[in-house]
Amino acid sequence: MIDLYLLFTRKEWSNLRDTTSLGLSCSEIKDINAYLSISEIKDIYLPLLLLLNFLIDSDLNQKQIIEKFLGKKNKKTPYIISISGSVAVGKSTIANILQILLRHNDKNSKVELISTDGFLYPNSILKKRGLMKKKGFPQSYDMRGLIKFVSDLKLGVEEVTAPVYSHDIYDIVPKKNKIIRQPDILILEGLNILQNKTDYRNDAYHIFVSDFVDFSIYVDATEELLQNWYVKRFLKLCQNSFIKSNSYFHSYSGLPKMEVIKIARNLWREINGLNLKKNILPTKERANLILVKQDNHAINQIRLRK
């Protein structure tokens, strides 16, 4: 079997950052994530920032060459970076880190962040279709809406909108949208972004989000770690978000700890773990970059597609 990736240890990857400086204060780093260390930013994200700068510059040069060839200026289109992986692996944190670093790196660059959670069908539709226990699976998303969103961006549409999802109410927020106006870079974070035609061999004309992505990142960890992180996150939510009266999981907030752990493990086994094995993990090897995490969420291995 041909290995399509270059493998880096944390130290080898860290050495690639050259003279790239951080340029962020400790407080700014803590604003991203309270548990994020400066060494994690320096060792992992600065080399990644340098790589992305090279790739984005190359993309801009190519667009300028095409404009010169055609003799006309094309509409502004964003460079799309996708971040995928399992529930609880830390996709949102990485997306936030990259957005802040990319904005900080170029103050004139407009960097937007969108989660594909906003394109989940509302619970009313999921219940009607018997998909509440398949939430996060490909069939639970409004794929036409998501494809239209990313394709409109790539067509240079001046203003596009994305629905907003609330983890408190566990549903789409009615009549609320996020407006995106021609960003330079769009970070798209979600579970099933790397799916392509090989997942739907009987549908020769299917279009996928991955068709519009310029650089893809997959965040990886063992299933044992992922389940542990999910349970810890669920316990934490029971202590804060779930205590809100409008929370979908409000009834869990007063339960004994061991009962909450049992519920979380069941949810993992019946929904998130199943989705990981069936739909998410099989797409890992399609990513341009794979970030492998260890037990403390630190990234200890990096695989860069050749």
Automatic annotation (TrEMBL):
This is Pantothenate kinase. Keywords: ATP-binding, Coenzyme A biosynthesis, Cytoplasm, Kinase, Nucleotide-binding, Transferase. The keyword Cytoplasm applies. Signal peptide: none annotated. Belongs to the prokaryotic pantothenate kinase family. It is found in: Cytoplasm. Pathway: Cofactor biosynthesis; coenzyme A biosynthesis; CoA from (R)-pantothenate: step 1/5.
